[in-house]
Specification:
Structural class: alpha+beta
Strand order of the largest sheet: 3-7-6-5-4
Distance between the termini: 52 Å
Order of helices and strands: HEEHHEHEEEE
Shape: globular
CATH class: Alpha Beta
Helix content: 25-40%
Radius of gyration: 20 Å
Number of strands: 7
């Protein structure tokens, strides 16, 4: 099959674009968005960053992981948290028991400047000795300089196993 010169140039440009750290996508209104190259390992490390912020005991440091327009659907509260102040209020109470999280299993999905980390985790609470297993989903968005949580949903595992 013969490829004309213009087709060869187009193919070369596309392959060269794949080798860069950013990919350009044309969106609605001919807007160009640069996609940050990332890996599953980089996204997985965002939980470690969040978990380390828990260890500081400072709710503001935890909330710094969240985008301004994010939502937190927490494990130990029925109230959704939309504002930074609402998230700080939740974490002030959550941090009182000195939590530490551990991922039990996960799956990561990568998109253009977005990522989803979902799975199961267990929290140990140093002040009470309690352990709580839960399901989680973190969605992330690249803001041009760092990954921030845009939504965080966490719920305790059902007591009875239902498959």
């Amino acid at each position: 099959m013969k490829m004309n010169y213009a087709g060869l140039l187009l193919l070369s440009a596309l392959l060269a674009g794949c080798a860069t750290s950013h990919v350009s996508l044309t969106g609605p209104g001919d807007r160009t968005e640069m996609c940050k190259a990332t890996t599953e390992q980089e996204i997985a490390s965002l939980f470690d960053r969040w978990n380390q912020s828990l260890h500081t005991g400072d709710p503001q440091k935890v909330v710094a992981n969240y985008a301004e327009s994010s939502v937190l659907l927490p494990t130990l509260s029925n109230k959704p948290r939309f504002t930074q102040a609402e998230k700080e209020d939740y974490f002030q109470h959550f941090l009182a028991n000195r939590p530490s999280g551990m991922i039990d299993m996960r799956t990561v999905e990568l998109g253009c400047n977005t990522a989803v980390d979902t799975g199961l985790y267990t929290f140990s609470f140093a002040t009470t000795g309690a352990k709580v297993s839960g399901r989680y989903t973190y969605t992330y968005r690249w803001n041009g300089s760092q990954w921030l949580i845009t939504s965080h949903h966490s719920s305790m595992m059902p007591e009875k196993k239902q498959d």
